[in-house]
Amino acid sequence: MRGFVPSYCSDAKVISVEARAMLDVYDDPSEQRSLSLDDTSSAEESPEDTRLSLETSIDAIPYIGQRFVTHDAAYEYYSEYAKRCGFSIRRHRTEGKDGIGKGLTRRYFVCHRAGNTPMKAPNDNKPQRNRKSSRCGCQAYMRISKSTDMGVTEWRVTGFSNHHNHELLEPNQVRFLPAYRTISDADKNRILMFAKSGISVQQMMRLMELEKCVEPGYLPFTEKDVRNLIQSFKKVDQDEESIDLLKMCRNIKEKDPNFKYDFTIDANNRLENIAWSYSSSVQSYEIFGDAVVFDTTHRLTAFDMPLGIWVGMNNYGMPCFHGCVLLREENVRSFSWALKVFLSFMNGKAPQTILTDQNMCLKEAIAIEMPSTKHALCIWLIVAKFPSWFNAVLGERYNEWKAEFYRLYNLESIDDFELGWREMVNSFGLHTNRHITNLFAFRSLWALPYLRNHFFAGMTTTGLSKSINAFIQRFLSAQTHLAHFIEQVAVAVDFRDQAGEHQTMQQNLQNICLKTGAPMEAHAAAVLTPYAFCKLQDELVMAAHYASFQIEEGCFLVRHHTKMDGGRKVIWIPREELLSCSCHMFEFSGILCRHALRVLSTLNCFQIPDRYLPIRWRRVNSLPSKLAQAAAASDQVERVQALQSMVSALISEAAKSKERMDMASKEISILLSRIREQPISLHSSRS
User: Fold this and answer.
1) pLDDT of 105 above 50
2) 571 φψ region: left (φ > 0), alpha (ψ -120 to 50), beta (else)
């Protein structure tokens, strides 16, 4: 930022002696007239003391008596001058002279920060946009007056002040002022073509930077300008498509009574927000809704609408879809509505934990609507910003710093994390880096030492983000019509379900190899899914490398056999079969740690206590799930058991060769598609 400036620019060109003298007189307080914008007086100059400035004037500084052919030429000249100085201008006021009918005789051009924003009267029926005004009462201006000399009309500068009460912008900043941000017709056509092809706004910006050979961020418009332009493309069609969208929801509801949707209408009877969830999504949430990701980083580009997607992880370690929402605005009110509706879809059951992007409005909404839910930030969304945050700052040490960040992120102790963070800041000289400061301020929302007491189902890894993005990209397209969007999501969810079922079958058909021969291992293999069992098996194998020491009744110290100090404290209460370890791995992942398993082995336990084989990680045939309970309640037990028997026989026969496996997978996919096409009625579910 530059400080306050005198009445002329530092980079101004040399002007005539007469003009300089005139400007000196103008700047002399003893000779200067009032420069208030309320001044309606007109300075009169003799023709010989002034000269006509053409539209391509070479004069660098406005001065009293400067002449222009038209008032538009004066405006363009003053605008160019303002841009060089670090501000922009706007037309402030026009005046007529000698009564009505004489036409325009005087114009004021003022700094963009002139004046003060009037207070708006509160309107209970319309939400107020709490936007800070840039106006601060700046008095910089240029006044021009119309005169006719020998039948020739011209405009003369009769007032000028370049005294600002605010800082002026640097050349690399002034271009971001709205007055200097423009999108040419050629660029508009290019953006429209990009939008129809389905690419994101960020990708559009990058492509146009490459085409124009400019550095990132140096286009004459911003991402917000592009989003506003895209929104204008669809403004006319959106209302009609909103009506079609609601019709489609009603049609789906008629075919499937368990399909859920809700929406809001604004004061102009236009669709504002809409959320929906499918019956299969609600069912999966019953078991796997303990930890969810609410991803709000995507937009429906054609309509510039924020898109929110609720995703969880099933017992086979694969993403499962829970719900979707389209919002008009990203504010606390909209997010609160979305969360409230999602809870109503899921019968009022809030997740234990929820992972989101760094959105302060969403953070506030979660605190209001889900007060008992632990809120955390998606680490993969944070890490994705590291190159732009730290690459230029750290240079060759960037990769070294990133490795140190991950080491700190995975620590167990809060004290070790905070000590290590301070050492990292000192080592890399990041004391004044604002991103480092913000990361540390919000450390309790993303660093694992602060989160290990909460269950996240393994969703704190970057691997899940790839699966989620792959799912989203199946239906996210700029050319998507709103009326077809819900249908496209349903197709993507169905594809995800079929792919998941295929992977589930492949997991179940894998020959599980027992590595320790321990009864606990065989017991866990029979109960847990292959995904969960492999994680537990890794801990069982490592448990053999640890020694346990009973330090008091029910309290054990467990440490690696090569170490003489340190270790983890494990508490065992035999009467209640309660087990806890200071590493908190079970609380965090639902998988028992090597320390707890070592103690169970020491106590001659041959089976893992039932409570430490969570339902959400069990095989389907061992799930006392809501689905199975519902089947039992509606006298379908025999049919369910018969179907399970046929499925077991199918798996047994298909596993005998690759050809049989391929055939079974293909036919089952077809059968599932046909089953899903059948309507679901309350009568048939109770028969």
Assistant:
1) yes
2) beta
Condensed to tens digits (0 to 9), the pLDDT of residues 443-492 reads: 999 999 999 999 999 888 766 667 766 766 666 654 455 656 666 676 65
Looking at 167-262, list the stretches that DSSP marks H as alpha helix, in order from N- to C-terminal side.
171-174, 185-197, 201-212, 223-255
pLDDT in tens, 25-78: 333 333 333 333 444 333 344 334 444 444 444 457 899 989 999 888 999 999
Give me the helices (H) in 455-593, please.
Answer: 462-472, 482-509, 519-527, 530-543, 585-589
Average pLDDT over residues 80-109: 77
C-alpha of 47 from chain center:
62
The strand pairing partners of 143, in sequence order, are 108, 159
Q: Determine which helix (DSSP H) or strand (DSSP E) holds 392, and give its type and residue range.
A: helix 386-394
Q: Coil, strand or helix: which one is 175?
A: coil
- How far is the C-alpha of 253 from the C-alpha of 517, rounded, in Å? 52
Would you say residue 509 has pLDDT above 70? no
- 429-442 per-position pLDDT tens digit: 999 999 999 999 99
What is the distance between the alpha carbons of residues 164 and 174, in angstroms, rounded to a whole number? 15
Strands laid side by side in the 104-111 sheet: 52-53, 67-68, 152-161, 141-149, 104-111, 89-96
Structure tokens at 529: 């899914």
Among 17-26, 454-463, 557-566, 623-632, the range scoring the smallest mean pLDDT is 17-26
Contacts of 434 (CB under 8 A, 6+ apart): none
The helix (run of H) or strand (run of E) holding residue 419 is: helix 414-428
DSSP 616: G
Tokens at 656, concatenated: 């005998």
Q: What angle do CA 333, 338, 343 make, to 5 degrees?
A: 125
Report residue 658's pLDDT band, with 50, 70 and 90 as the boundaries: confident
Residues 6+ apart with CB under 8 A from 88: 79, 82, 111, 112, 174, 177, 178, 179, 180
Q: Which residues contact residue 195 at a Cβ distance below 8 angstroms, ignoring those fewer than 6 apart?
A: 204, 230, 233, 301, 302, 478, 479
Give the 3-state secondary structure of residue 358.
Answer: coil
**Alpha-carbon distance 18 to 85, whole Å?**
23
Cβ(97)–Cβ(106) below 8 Å: yes
> For residue 667, what is the enclosing H or E element?
helix 658-677
Contacts of 175 (CB under 8 A, 6+ apart): 181, 218, 220
